[in-house]
Specification:
Keywords: Glycoprotein, Immunoglobulin domain, Membrane, Signal, Transmembrane, Transmembrane helix. Pfam families: C1-set (PF07654), MHC_I (PF00129). InterPro entries: Ig-like_dom, Ig-like_dom_sf, Ig-like_fold, Ig/MHC_CS, Ig_C1-set, MHC_class-I_related, MHC_I-like_Ag-recog, MHC_I-like_Ag-recog_sf. The strands form three sheets. The protein has an eight-stranded antiparallel beta sheet. Strands 9, 10, 13, 14 and 15 form a five-stranded antiparallel beta sheet that branches. The protein contains ten helices and 17 strands. Helix 1 packs parallel to helix 5. It is an alpha+beta fold. Strand 6 and strand 7 form a beta hairpin.
Length: 487
């Protein structure tokens, strides 16, 4: 890595930016849709850069301009960085679209349906005693929520996750020079940029926030004899958190828990909600939260059974203040819903979320409005698309990836909340519990097209096995090493 890089990391650690044993990552995530949904805030193509869970830059197919998402990125990076980055993103937008068209034909799917392709690439490091340790480089593709293709950087070869990806694998494996550049980018240039960005954003990156923990109880909707207990931890950073609903100090099994998964807040912090339905005394239960910012776990207990129709029981030292806030939220919600009815339901379909099973079938679903969600019990409304046992399924998924020598860190990472109404819808689309890709942290193409050839890496449609030969097409692998400072 070099003496200069080691010294730089040592200084960063002294300033509190890094912690011994703590991992840092720089990822770029690209998401392409097969067609325009004509929904506000949902774009055919989006790209974003992520540094340790924080969004540092953003691009979409409507504005077609790479923009900074952190004030320190705007201050530190020169204008030509954003100009080159914009051109690189435009090139990748076209490339990903062509690749998605090819995959749709290879999978023998209809191009009339919605399909999603994601590409994530980047690097992860660890610091020990002030020295940088390269952990892994990642370049992965997923199609409609399933693994499709990923790069084995150690052996410089591509691994097909499904039979339909084999033609692409064979073609890209023959691009020896390009794969060598990709390996070099992942192990060296990506790490250099990661360290540089950490230095630029050190004031922001070292700001850690403890979780605020709340407990809610209400009568079960499905069974009037049961009580639904919900534990909410919010406002915490870093993202990693351990939350459990316990009975007599013992955690309730995952298959009995419904979870939202860790999701982003607008201010860059995170939240996590878990719920359980019980038929016995709520006072036997508590909510237990562990986070790196608190020495002792935060524990909240539930009160006695809520009365029928009583709504919520809030446990916590700031209950009074939270109730006031909830009243304000309810008042605003009532006003919005009333205005919505007066406008004949205008606005429906603008906010969407991705489901856990079939993204293509559910991508047009909307958040329930007043007819499906009692405004008086606003906090009980389920705005997620979570399911029971998601933790256990996620663990099995991590074991599967580990056995293949792949990164498992990407499974648990969610993209940060985008600022603004337009980006909020897109954020819901790509950060739902299932997400488009289980195997990808989110979007990654490694650097930029510094050869200026927008046609580079274009994958031509019509490569379905049995119809046309892949070798008859002059298609190159994605050049992961083009980015430098124009990613």
């Amino acid at each position: 890595m070099g003496v200069g890089l080691v010294l730089l990391v040592s200084v960063l650690c002294a300033l509190g930016v890094c912690t011994v044993g703590e991992n840092h990552f720089l990822y770029y995530i690209y998401t392409g849709l097969s067609k325009d949904l004509n929904l506000k805030g949902v774009y055919e193509f989006t790209a974003l850069g992520l540094l340790d869970d924080r969004e540092i830059d953003y691009y979409n197919s409507k504005e077609q301009k790479k923009i900074p998402k952190q004030s320190w990125m705007m201050e530190k990076m020169q204008e030509d960085y954003w100009e080159k980055g914009t051109q690189s993103r435009k090139s990748k937008e076209q490339w990903l679209k062509d690749f998605l068209d090819t995959i749709i034909q290879q999978m023998n799917h209809s191009n009339q349906d919605l399909h999603v392709l994601q590409w994530r690439h980047g690097c992860e490091i660890d610091e020990s005693s002030g020295e940088v340790k390269f952990l892994r480089g990642i370049s992965e593709y997923s199609y409609d929520g399933s693994d499709f293709l990923y790069f084995d950087y150690e052996n410089m070869r591509w691994i097909a996750a499904v039979p339909q990806a084999e033609p692409t694998k064979r073609k890209w494996d023959n691009e020896t020079i390009v794969n060598q550049d990709a390996k070099r980018y992942l192990e060296k240039e990506c790490v250099d940029w990661l360290i540089k960005f950490m230095e630029y954003g050190k004031e922001t990156l070292r700001k850690h926030s403890p979780p605020a923990v709340y407990g809610f109880a209400k009568k079960s909707v499905s069974d009037s004899k049961k009580v639904s207990l919900t534990c909410l931890a919010t406002g915490f950073y870093p993202k990693d958190v351990d939350l459990s609903v316990r009975k007599f100090g013992t955690s309730i099994p995952d298959h009995l828990i419904t979870t939202s998964g860790v999701r982003p807040n607008e201010d860059g912090t995170y939240q996590l909600r878990k719920s359980a339905e019980i038929s016995d005394d709520p006072t036997d239960y508590d909510c237990n939260v562990h986070h790196s910012t608190i020495e002792e776990p935060a524990i909240k207990k539930w009160a006695a059974n809520p009365k029928t129709g009583s709504g919520l029981v809030l446990i916590g030292g700031v209950a009074g203040g939270v109730i006031v806030i909830l009243l304000i939220v309810l008042a605003v919600l009532f006003f919005v819903l009333k205005k919505k009815r007066m406008n004949g339901g205008a606005g429906r379909g603008q906010v969407i979320y991705a489901g856990p099973q079939d993204l293509s079938a559910r991508v047009l679903e909307i958040i329930p409005d007043a007819e499906q969600c009692d405004v008086k019990e606003f906090m009980s409304c389920d705005f997620s698309d979570s399911g029971k046992g998601s933790n256990s399924s996620r663990n099995s998924r991590e074991e599967s990836l580990s056995s293949n020598g792949r990164s498992t860190h990407s499974i648990n990472i969610l993209p940060p909340t985008f600022a603004g109404d337009d980006e909020e819808a897109q954020n819901r689309l790509i950060s739902a519990e299932r997400r488009f890709s289980k195997s990808m942290y989110l979007p990654p193409n490694l650097a930029g097209d510094d050869d200026g050839d927008e046609g580079q890496n274009r994958l031509v449609a019509g490569l379905t096995p049995g119809r046309q030969s892949w070798n008859s097409r002059n298609v190159s692998t994605p050049n992961l090493a083009f980015g430098r400072n124009d990613e």
